[in-house]
């Protein structure tokens, strides 16, 4: 409002009215804090409901697809499921970018608009509007689930396999043939898996009895544990990026919140979707077994890590802010003009930045730049505010309202392209890593294993990762705003430190994922060697048995 801009000007000490404590006390009262806590509680409840509602799709939907689809088609179906799931955040980033261009109080917007642009640090977009749209879409998308059949029809190949398993079991029971001692391990396991899938569901009491045993058996599986740990590292990277990448782009490259969200929604998310689909197609097309799935995951994680290295060098230092940061060899206004703000009475908690375009020095308020006049330049779609008669600036101004632009704003597109390529390569490992779990655990443990996996991802990645990234970003702050005598929002960051710690944390998690996939490949190779040794021993034993049986006996009588 106009009075807000007038209050930021340099005014003589005698003409400044005495501050009234009532508004400050009312804004810092315990009632206001209780209201804020209530809003946070509502947000937590909404997130909990979203988590409960997502369970039928992931994780249960993953096991559901793998149970009723043919083994060769399952990777492609899972890749499509994961890709469609990623489309949601992509659309949300795009939709959020459009809505953040609207001011937060769209119902109370003054008739003439406000003298703020979306690049102003004080701009708050309509963040709440996206929740209404997405919540309505979720409610509509839930309706078709009511019409799903109680039993999903199996795919033809899978159905024939189970019928053969039933027929073989029935014939062995009725004729007394093929006793367990006579069956090969492969035949016995195949029939057991076939029976497991068509067995009736356990009751709740039976499930509670067997749950601890199945849980321990699943957690002792080395491949399962390593795959989950690698996905925890990768999910930690994704959680940090999804939460703080828009903020990082705003601070590092001086782009608006809406443009940052549009970049992520148009570049990173589609790249991740392509990576997931390509991973599923590769597994299906080349019939990749566990060993090759592990090798594909290792290569994807390795190239994703290599693409992270240039990100450390794509950025520049924080521009000079009078009274906070200082560039070597450059004198800001208060040092160039000593005592230029002495006649002013500048409020300490005010924030209305202005930028001197000649020296690229930023001031927290027009008052700290010694400005006494204000000029509004009207345009067709927006108005630009300038401040004049500034005693701390060469020539007295005018200086435009708003923060100084970054000298590295041209690097935002190359930065996002590297991030998007890294996201595509990381997503390439998504479907193969799930196949490693689905093919590695017992069929009857599959649903529980995927459920445990998602629980561990939530607890070890999606919950702590944003906290870790937020804490690391907070340590790079060079100027904190104060509210009610306490530290509030960070106004300025050390850009070099911010970039090194944010990208460094991402690099650390990608290294952890790469190490886990390397260990998985080592274990799979060891298992292959052991299986090869067992096959050699059993073959030599069979040859000795055939020689000992004599030439008169037929080979059919000596079955294994």
UniProtKB/TrEMBL annotation:
Cellular compartment(s): Cell membrane
Keyword field: Cell membrane, Disulfide bond, Ion transport, Membrane, Transmembrane, Transmembrane helix, Transport
PROSITE patterns, per the entry: KAZAL_2
Regions of compositional bias (Low complexity) in chain numbering: 12-27
Disordered: annotated segments: 1-27, 170-193
Cellular component GO terms, alphabetical: apical plasma membrane; basolateral plasma membrane
Limits of the Kazal-like domain: 334-394
GO biological process: monoatomic ion transport; sodium-independent organic anion transport
UniProt main location, coarse: membrane
Membrane topology: Multi-pass membrane protein
Transmembrane segments: 34-55, 76-104, 124-148, 223-245, 257-283, 295-315, 411-436, 448-465, 502-524
The organism's place on the tree of life at top rank: Eukaryota
Endoplasmic reticulum recorded as keyword: no
GO molecular function terms noted in the UniProt entry: bile acid transmembrane transporter activity; sodium-independent organic anion transmembrane transporter activity
Family: Belongs to the organo anion transporter (TC 2.A.60) family.
This protein's name: Solute carrier organic anion transporter family member
């Amino acid at each position: 409002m106009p009075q807000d801009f007038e209050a930021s000007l340099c005014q003589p000490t005698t003409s400044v009215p005495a501050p009234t404590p009532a508004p400050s006390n009312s804004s810092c009262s315990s009632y206001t804090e209780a209201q804020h806590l209530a809003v946070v509680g509502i947000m937590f409840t909404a997130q909990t409901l979203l988590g409960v509602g997502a369970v039928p799709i992931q994780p249960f939907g993953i096991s559901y697809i793998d149970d009723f689809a043919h083994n060769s088609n399952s990777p492609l179906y899972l890749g499509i499921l994961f890709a469609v799931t990623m489309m949601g955040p992509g659309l949300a980033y795009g939709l959020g970018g459009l809505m953040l261009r609207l001011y937060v109080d769209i119902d109370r917007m003054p008739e003439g608009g406000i003298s703020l642009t979306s690049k102003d640090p004080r701009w708050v977009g309509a963040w709440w509007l996206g929740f209404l749209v997405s919540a309505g879409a979720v409610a509509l998308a839930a309706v078709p689930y009511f019409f799903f059949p109680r039993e999903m029809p199996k795919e033809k190949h899978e159905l024939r396999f189970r019928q053969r398993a039933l027929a073989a079991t029935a014939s062995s029971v009725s004729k007394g043939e093929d006793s367990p001692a006579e069956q090969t391990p492969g035949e016995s396991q195949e029939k057991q898996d076939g029976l497991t899938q068509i067995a009736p569901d356990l009751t709740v009491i039976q499930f509670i009895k067997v749950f601890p045993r199945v849980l321990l058996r699943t957690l002792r599986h080395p491949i399962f544990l390593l795959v989950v740990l690698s996905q925890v590292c990768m999910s930690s990277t994704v959680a940090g990026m999804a939460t703080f990448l828009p903020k990082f782009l705003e601070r590092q490259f001086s782009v608006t919140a809406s443009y940052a969200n549009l970049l992520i929604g148009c570049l990173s998310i589609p790249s991740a979707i392509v990576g997931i689909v390509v991973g599923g197609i590769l597994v299906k097309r080349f019939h990749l077994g566990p060993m090759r799935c592990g090798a594909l995951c290792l290569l994807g994680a390795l190239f994703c890590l290599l693409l992270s290295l240039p990100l450390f060098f794509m950025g520049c230092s924080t521009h000079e802010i009078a009274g906070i940061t200082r560039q070597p060899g450059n004198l800001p206004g208060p040092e160039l003009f000593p005592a230029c703000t002495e006649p002013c009475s500048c409020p300490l908690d005010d924030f209305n930045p202005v930028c001197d375009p000649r020296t690229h020095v930023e001031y927290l308020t027009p008052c700290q730049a010694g400005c006494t006049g204000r000029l509004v330049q009207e345009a067709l779609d927006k108005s630009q505010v300038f401040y004049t008669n500034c005693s701390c600036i060469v020539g007295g101004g005018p200086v435009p309202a708003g923060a100084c632009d970054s000298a590295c704003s041209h690097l935002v597109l190359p930065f996002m392209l590297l991030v998007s390529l890294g996201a595509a390569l990381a997503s390439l490992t998504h479907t193969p890593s799930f196949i490693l779990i689905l093919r590695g655990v017992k069929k009857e443990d599959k649903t529980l294993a995927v459920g445990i996996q998602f629980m561990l991802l939530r607890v070890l990645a999606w919950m702590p990762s944003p906290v870790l990234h937020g804490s690391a970003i907070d340590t790079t702050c060079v100027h904190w705003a104060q509210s009610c005598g306490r530290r509030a929002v960070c106004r300025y960051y050390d850009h070099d430190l911010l970039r090194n710690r944010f990208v460094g944390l991402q690099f650390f998690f990608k290294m952890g994922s790469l190490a886990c996939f390397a260990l998985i490949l080592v274990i799979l190779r060891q298992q292959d060697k052991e299986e090869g040794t067992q096959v050699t021993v059993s073959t030599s034993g069979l040859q000795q048995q055939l020689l000992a049986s004599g030439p008169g006996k037929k080979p059919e009588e000596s079955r294994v």
